[in-house]
Amino acid sequence: MCVVGFVSLIFLTSSVCFGQSGSKPLLLEKNEGELRTRRPRPKPSPASQFMLKVDPKTNGSQHLIVGTEEIAPGASIPTHKHPTEDEIVLIHSGEAHVLLGEQERDLHEGGLVFIPANTWIGLKNISTAPVSVTFIFSAPGFEEFQRCISVPAAETPMPMTEEDLKRCEAPGHMVYK
Description:
This protein is 18% helix and 36% strand. It has four helices and twelve strands. The strands form two sheets. Strands 8-5-10-3-2-1-11 form a seven-stranded antiparallel β-sheet. It has a five-stranded antiparallel β-sheet with strand order 7-6-9-4-12, with no helix packed on it. The model is unreliable at 1-19 (pLDDT under 50).
């Protein structure tokens, strides 16, 4: 909530209420953002490409990470956890089998997964079409992992070793089961 005196209102509103975080407001279409290609790696990848839309690098956000990807039929996100960030996954299309902590369930178009920090999560596309998802993190960190395991879409990705993947996990707030 922004409370300022009437005299100060004209001078302070933009700096106190709207711009203090330094984040740049965004309006993005589905195909807009930082498109990246995953490097081939020992653990399976859910998709070859993903898009980062909101994070410290793309728009200066210090509080949220948002990205999108399409997971091919039969592909999966390996079971993993994020020790310090909560995550939300929104399912826009398709059907996914989700493992969340001790729970397992199939979710469909319009489904939502809330993943508290330090909770195991895994997902598999069980439909015949791609599963389109948006992922949202409560704090920066995961985008570092995503950039570490990928290259900008215009570059050719080089394969990763198991050691490369381990180096990416810790600074990117990611732990595989």
